[in-house]
Each structure stands twice: as structure tokens, then as C-alpha cells.
Amino acid sequence: MKLGVHVSIAGSIDLSIDRARSLGLNTFQIFTRNPRGWKFSDLKESNIVNFKNKILSENISTVVCHMPYLPNLSSPKEDVHNMSINALSSELERCNTLGIEYVVTHIGSHLGTGLEKGLDRVVKACNAALSNSSNNTMIILENTAGTKNNVGSKFDELKYIFDNVNDKSRIGFCFDTCHAFAAGYDLSTSKSVIDTLKKFNQIIGLKYLKVVHLNDSKGELGNGLDRHQHIGRGFIGENGFRELLKNSTIKQLPLILETPIDETFDDEYNINKIYSLEN
Question: Using an 8 Å Cβ cutoff, are 88 and 125 in contact?
Fold first, then answer.
């Protein structure tokens, strides 16, 4: 199983590998820069070399990059939309330099201008970013939680984006379990997991799924609440994750935990919980 968590790059980006290996992980997710701002520094050549060498020496199977929080690919505000395209383009370039194959991005909000317009802006952003960065790094679109004005909470919306992106070889999907549950896709029972994955396969195709975010949900089914909970402690529960881990496609993918670190449990607890549910 390829199981990981989101780890810090504090000090130097290659230190993220040390942090992942200290937890016994063979995959992990990072931000390559400050996730809460638009500005960033270029990667130092020494850090790039150290990062790539450690990936090989530590036998890391997959590294996943997550886009910063500020970009909104669905934004009707021209300046924000353009900055979001530039941010995505630069992230594809940075990850290509680091040898990272996947850049997971939030799809964003149409800010009340309508779903159809929001979807078309996402398509425009993806096409522009892929054209700006001629390499093999993929844009991985993450399903959203169905919060008001969200774009990409329904499988049909994700399919629309995929169908209208020019270079389909560089587009894939990240399935966030908390977001799917919040958007109305039940994952709390064995049957509901099978039904939800069947629906994803029928509409999009499981072969286009590249990353899974394993998060339980603090909110009830379909309430649009994007609040992650410790594995087995939320409304999805242990049975849901146990069934997910049985799926032949899911268990081959990078499984990234984005669960809380708080006064009750930490990454190690959630890692061990997933391993216990695999058996």
C-alpha cells in the first residue's frame, strides 16, 4: 500500500522526505512553497538535487504536490483568474524540476456567477496552464465538498472539465473522501462505497483516478461541510474505509491522509488505523 500524509518542507524541501520516512511512509504530499501567499522563491539547485537524490535513496514511490490555497481556477475576477493560471503553470514547472508527477489543485468557487461559467473558467485555466508548461507533470483535479458556489463537487462536473481540456494525457483526479461524503456521495457502508465507486467509474472512469485523500468527515452526509476528521471517528466510519481499501484500483494509488493533528490524535494514529483496516 502507498500510504502517506501531508508533510512540512520547513528548512529545506528535501527535509520533507526525512519527515515522511520517520513515519515509515513510502509516499507523501507537500506544498512546494508558502501555501497562503502568491509570492514564492525559486528553488535552489542544491535543494533540487538533494530532493531528487533522497527520493531514489529512500525508495519513495510517489510524491504528490498540493497547490497553494489562494488560486481559484473558477474565479470570475479576471485578475484572480490570471494569477491562478500563473500559479498553476509555475507549480507544474517547479514539480517537473523536482521530478514530481502530480499537482493536486482545488477547483474553486464561481462566487455566485453560475456553475456553467465556473466550469468553463476551470477548463480555460487548465488549458492555459498546460500550454504554458510543456512537460509531463499532471494537473490532478480534487473533488469539492459541495459548499455554496463550489465547482467540481459532482462527478458530472469533473467529467465536463475533463471532456473539454485539450491535453487529456495530463489531467487526472484526486478523490477526497470527506469532500465526496459532504457532497452527498455515501461512503459509510460497504454497499454505499461500492455504489459510489461504480458511479465514479461510469461517469469519469477509475483509470483517471490518480490520488486519494483519506479523510473522515465531521459533517453528516450531503451537508457541504469541508471538515476533516480522524479515520473512523467521523460520519464515514471504519466500515467505509475498510471497503475503500478493498477496491483493486484504490489500493494501488497514493493514499494521502489529511487528517487533523490535535489534542486527541496525530498522524501516527491515523496511519496505524488505516493499516489496521487494510487487514
Answer: yes
DSSP-assigned beta bridge partners for residue 257: 5, 214
Contact predicate 278/231, CB 8 Å: no
Q: Which CATH class is domain 2-278?
A: alpha beta
The answer to whether the beta carbons of residues 15 and 242 sit under 8 Å apart is no
Catalytic residue numbers read: 36, 66, 69, 106, 142, 176, 179, 213, 226, 228, 258
- Asked if 151 and 122 count as a contact pair (C-beta separation under 8 A), the reply is yes
β-pair partners for 228 = 217
- CB-CB contact of 60 with 20 (8 Å): yes
**Cα(228)–Cα(241) distance, rounded to whole angstroms?**
14
Question: pLDDT of the chain along its 279 residues, tens only?
Answer: 999 999 999 999 999 999 999 999 999 999 999 999 999 999 999 999 999 999 999 999 999 999 999 999 999 999 999 999 999 999 999 999 999 999 999 999 999 999 999 999 999 999 999 999 999 999 999 999 999 999 999 999 999 999 999 999 999 999 999 999 999 999 999 999 999 999 999 999 999 999 999 999 999 999 999 999 999 999 999 999 999 999 999 999 999 999 999 999 999 999 999 999 997
